[in-house]
Amino acid sequence: MTKYGVIVGSIRKNSYSKGVADALVAGLPEDSEVTYIDIASLPLYNQDYDADSPAEYTRFRNEVAAQDAFIFVTPEHNRSISAALKNALDVASRPWGQSVWAGKPALVASQSISGISGVLAHHILRQSLVFLDMPTMQQPELYIGNTDKLSDEEGHITNEGTKNFLADSAKKFSEFAKKFI
Q1: What is the CATH number of the domain that holds 24?
Q2: What is the C-alpha to C-alpha distance for residues 176 and 61, in angstroms, rounded to an integer?
Q3: pTM of this prediction?
Q4: Could you report the per-residue pLDDT of 27-67, keeping only the tens digit for each?
Q5: What's the structural domain count of the chain?
Q6: Which end of the chain has fewer CB atoms < 10 Å from its terminal CB, N or C?
Q7: 58-100 tens-digit pLDDT
Q8: What pLDDT is attached to residue 176?
């Protein structure tokens, strides 16, 4: 059984990113253990906390450490990843030399209501994952555009073609992740 951590970069209620994450999770093997890890409650990373971390940092780092692989879904905020997602990456990579991300395989998906599909956020996130030593599945690339037209008012993906594409991509990711676990 593989433990998959899911990090949704949007903390908005009924977010399209959460809908994309749900559609990906639907394609994972039945014996998968899936944990959506909350990033909304993390205080902003501050190096002053390295010696005495807030309880939320410790909770988050422990949850990240317990996973075998990660699915990241990011919205695009001002041509980058969300502040909440960047903060989560920073919190679990510190103190220096104690990153709990290293070696864990990752899948990156981006989404946007625009036609450019969060492509810049996608690549910015990939760049961070390279530094964090997370092997990242290269293909298929998951740029999901026009999510407002592919989803219902609660953010769930309703377009069957998109749902099938995401589920199939998660199946491929499960095979990719096995190489590193």
Answers
A1: 3.40.50.360
A2: 24
A3: 0.96
A4: 999 999 999 999 999 999 999 999 999 999 999 999 999 99
A5: 1
A6: N
A7: 999 999 999 999 999 999 989 999 999 999 999 999 999 999 9
A8: 98
State how far the Cα of 156 lies from the Cα of 89, in Å rounded to an integer.
25
Number of other CB atoms surrounding residue 108 within 10 Å: 25
What are the φ and ψ backbone dihedral angles of 25, each rounded to 5 degrees? -55, -35
Q: Report the 10 Å Cβ neighbour count for 55.
A: 9
Q: In what order do the strands lie in the sheet with 33-36?
A: 33-36, 3-8, 69-75, 106-111, 142-144
The vertex-7 CA angle with 177 and 150, nearest 5°, equals: 95
Under DSSP, is residue 7 helix (H, G, I), strand (E, B) or coil? strand
Dihedrals φ, ψ of 104, to 5°?
-90, 125
Identity of the residue numbered 1: M
Domain range spanning residue 131?
Answer: 3-178
Nearest alpha carbon to residue 23 among 173, 174, 158 = 158
